[in-house]
Amino acid sequence: MLRVALPLVALTICCAGAFAQSSHRLSVPNVADDTPIQIRVAYIEFSRFPTISRETLSRLIDASTNVAKDKFGIEIRISELVILNADAVAKRMREMPEQITINELSRSYTLGSSKISLKHVLEMPDSIEQCLRNNGIPLKKLVSFVQLPEEKNFTYQELAEYLTAVAVKRYELIANDSASDGLPVVGGTPYNEWKMWQVLGYSNLPYEVVITNQPILSIERDHCSIHALLRGGLSIGGTTYSKKSKFGTYALFSIFPFVAENKGFLELNRGKKFTASEIGEYAGAYLVHEYGHMLFHLGHPFARDECVMNPAPDLNVRAWWASRSRGKCPIGSSPQMIPGAAQLSRIEYENSNKMLNPDP
Ligand SMILES: [Zn+2]
Questions:
Q1: Three-state DSSP string of the chain
Q2: Distance 351 CA to ligand 1 centre (A)
């Protein structure tokens, strides 16, 4: 999945007491001369959530390189693989100016709570509608992706209201499940927040790919990943600016959707559990979706079931891969498959660039 930090056009947003900020387009990396493409990977393991064996992790990575070769014709080599824990994330986040982290996290509707406040529920349709209108995807394709009956001629407003209702219900279903310590999945830390992982890219994080078993479960007022909303704000992955990645972005990938066995999650995921072998196969294939964002800045060709860049609308990754594994979807074969379509960007905070981009 792709999480674009902010609209591309340079803009200035001022939040209460926050930094003025603007966003700047990132250029597509030139990987043609970089063969094999060397990638550094970190697996960040959180003790509160199910994990995978090192063997399954290797299987996942091997599957990703095989699928990347098949779908994109590229050779990827993992030059470094490290295992980290929550302390490593906390250390990196401490490098960031606290005000910037707070500023970004303040855009979350879900921050720190397994229940979304009524105030935020009432705000969500308008912000989702505005975001849907701005993202350049035709309404008809969005309705088709959501699998609503097209003949009803849904408006943006009706679609936004539908997405709000689904997102809130499913968010609370997953967020209120118990983690291994008996406490709710969400609460007490910002690790579930996409915004926290976005800010992490501005720290000295020296990896192109970060895999974690932490659920990335959050809903924000300034962007609308339609597939994440359909899953209650649960992301499988995200590609965002990274100061230390040699490609300018890093791919975040959560295996939580593949390993979770919580009641709420399984209800959303149609009750199916994956074997270790399936985790390696499906998660590895889905990681290639993030490679497509990171290496080519590809977008989302909604309604093309043969494309790995078409995200899973729900968490039925088995069905997602069944159609993608058979299909051909070459780079350049549709507007969203043209390099640069994703329009990835980097935020700059006025008067604070030195803090956001400190020298190594
Ligand atoms: Zn994506």
A1: CCCCCCCCCCCCECCCCCCCEEEEECCCCCCCCCCCEEEEEEEEECCCCCCCCHHHHHHHHHHHHHHHHHHHCCCEEEEEEEEEEHHHHHHHHHHCCHHHHHHHHCCECCCCCCCCCHHHHHHHHHHHHHHHHHCCCCHHHHHHHHCCCHHHCCCHHHHHHHHHHHHHHHHHHHHCCECCCCCECCCCCCCCCHHHHHHHCCCCCCCCEEEECCCEECCECCCCCHHHHHCCCEECEEEEECCCCCCCEEEEEECHHHHCCCHHHHHHCCCCCCCHHHHHHHHHHHHHHHHHHHHHCCCCCCCCCCCCCCCCCCCCHHHHHHHHCCCCCCCCCCHHHCCCCCCCEEEEECCCHHHHCCCC
A2: 32
How many angstroms does the Cα of residue 20 sit away from the middle of ligand 1? 28
Q: What was the pLDDT predicted at 100? A: 84
Q: For 49-102, write each residue's pLDDT tens digit.
A: 999 999 999 999 999 999 999 999 999 999 999 999 999 999 999 988 888 898
16 CA to middle of ligand 1, Å? 31
Domain boundaries, given as residue ranges, for the chain: 21-356
284 CA → ligand 1 middle, Å? 14
Residue-level pLDDT at 72: 95
Distance from the alpha carbon of residue 253 to the mean position of ligand 1, in angstroms: 11
Distance 322 CA to ligand 1 centre (A): 18
pLDDT value, residue 223: 74
